[in-house]
C-alpha cells in the first residue's frame, strides 16, 4: 500500500523535470521594454521662457511644448526680409536700365570733352609751325601735343560711357541680380524657419519622457530640450544569444513575458542586427555569459499598454518560417 504513493511521487517528479526540460528548449532572450524616442533639440542658444508640459504627460501631435526667447532671432529674420527687399529693388533697377537723365549727362560730358579736344588740337596746330621756326621752346610744343592727345582720350572715354548707357544693362548683370535675390530669399526662409522652431511642438502623439532644462535655462544649440516616447505600444529590446541567432528572423512570432504579469503578450520580430555585440549584464544567464549576442526588437501586438524599462523575457516561435 505504501509503494503506490511513492510511485506517484516519482512519476510527478519525472513530469516536472520533463516540463522543465521542454521549457528550457524554447528559444528565449532577455531584455527590456522600450518605446521609440523622439528628441527635440534646441535650434538656437536662447533662454527658455515657457514650458507648457510636464514629464509623464501624454500629448497629441502639434501640442506646444517649450517656447524660447525670440528677440534676437526675430531681429535676424527682419534683417533677412529687409535684404530681400533691397535685392529685389536692385534687380528692378538692373532690368529697367539707365535713366534718361544719366544718358543726357553722359552725352553732355561727351560734348564737353569734344570741345576741349578741339581747343587742345587747335592750340597744338598753332604752336607746331612756331616750334619749327624755333620761335617757341620745343618743350612747349611737346606739352601742347600731349594735351591734345589727352583730350582725344577723354573724348573716347566719354563716348564709351555714353554707349554703355545707351545699350542698357547686360544680361549677365541681370542674372547676377536674380541670383542675389534668390540667395537673400533662401536666407530669409531659413531665418523664418528658425523663428518658427522657437515654439517647440510635438511632432507625433506620445508621452513626455524628460525635460532636461528648466524655465530660464539657456541650452546650447543641439542640446535636447524635450525627449518624447512615441508609439501606441512598446517593443521588447532583447539580446539573442549566438546559438539562437540562426533560428530568429524578422517577422517571426514571439511571446513576451513581463515581470509581474501572468499573461504573455504576443509579438513579432521587427529587427535583428547582423553584427554581434557583448551581452549586457542583465541578459547574462548560464553559459550566455561567455557568448556574444545579437540585438533584436520584438514589436508587441496592439493593446499592450505597458511602461518602458520593465525587464522582459522573450520566447521565439518554432522557426523563422512562422510569420504572424
TrEMBL record:
Glycoprotein keyword on record: no
Residue intervals of the YbhG-like alpha-helical hairpin domain: 76-188
Coiled-coil positions: 148-201
One Pfam family from the record: HH_YBHG
Tree of life domain: Bacteria
Signal peptide (residue range): 1-23
Compartments, record wording: Cell envelope
PROSITE patterns in the record: PROKAR_LIPOPROTEIN
Keyword Coiled coil: yes
Keyword terms, alphabetized: Coiled coil, Signal
Major subcellular location class: other
Full protein name: HlyD family secretion protein
Species lineage: Bacteria, Pseudomonadati, Pseudomonadota, Gammaproteobacteria, Lysobacterales
Amino acid at each position: 500500500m505504501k509503494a503506490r504513493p511513492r510511485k506517484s511521487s516519482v512519476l510527478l517528479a519525472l513530469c516536472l523535470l520533463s516540463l522543465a526540460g521542454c521549457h528550457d528548449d524554447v528559444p528565449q532572450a532577455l531584455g527590456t521594454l522600450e518605446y521609440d524616442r523622439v528628441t527635440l533639440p534646441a535650434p538656437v542658444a536662447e533662454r527658455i521662457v515657457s514650458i507648457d508640459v510636464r514629464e509623464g504627460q501624454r500629448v497629441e501631435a502639434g501640442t506646444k511644448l517649450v517656447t524660447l526667447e525670440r528677440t534676437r532671432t526675430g531681429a535676424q529674420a527682419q534683417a533677412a526680409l529687409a535684404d530681400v527687399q533691397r535685392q529685389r529693388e536692385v534687380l528692378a533697377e538692373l532690368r529697367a536700365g539707365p535713366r534718361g537723365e544719366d544718358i543726357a549727362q553722359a552725352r553732355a560730358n561727351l560734348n564737353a570733352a569734344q570741345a576741349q579736344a578741339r581747343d587742345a588740337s587747335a592750340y597744338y596746330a598753332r604752336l607746331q609751325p612756331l616750334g619749327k621756326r624755333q620761335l617757341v621752346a620745343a618743350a612747349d610744343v611737346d606739352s601742347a601735343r600731349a594735351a591734345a592727345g589727352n583730350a582725344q582720350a577723354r573724348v573716347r572715354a566719354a563716348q564709351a560711357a555714353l554707349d554703355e548707357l545707351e545699350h542698357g544693362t547686360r544680361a549677365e548683370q541681370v542674372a547676377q541680380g536674380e541670383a542675389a535675390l534668390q540667395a537673400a530669399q533662401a536666407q530669409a526662409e531659413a531665418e523664418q524657419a528658425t523663428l518658427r522652431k522657437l515654439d517647440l511642438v510635438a511632432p507625433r502623439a506620445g508621452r513626455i519622457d524628460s525635460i532636461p532644462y528648466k524655465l530660464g535655462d539657456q541650452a546650447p544649440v543641439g542640446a535636447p530640450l524635450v525627449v518624447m516616447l512615441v508609439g501606441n505600444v512598446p517593443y521588447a529590446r532583447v539580446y539573442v544569444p549566438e546559438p539562437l541567432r540562426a533560428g530568429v528572423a524578422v517577422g517571426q512570432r514571439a511571446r513576451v513575458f513581463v515581470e509581474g504579469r501572468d499573461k504573455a503578450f504576443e509579438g513579432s520580430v521587427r529587427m535583428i542586427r547582423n553584427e554581434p555585440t557583448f551581452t549586457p549584464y542583465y541578459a547574462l544567464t548560464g553559459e550566455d555569459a561567455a557568448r556574444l549576442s545579437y540585438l533584436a526588437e520584438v514589436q508587441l501586438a496592439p493593446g499592450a499598454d505597458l511602461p518602458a524599462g520593465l525587464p522582459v523575457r522573450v520566447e521565439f516561435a518554432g522557426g523563422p518560417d512562422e510569420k504572424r
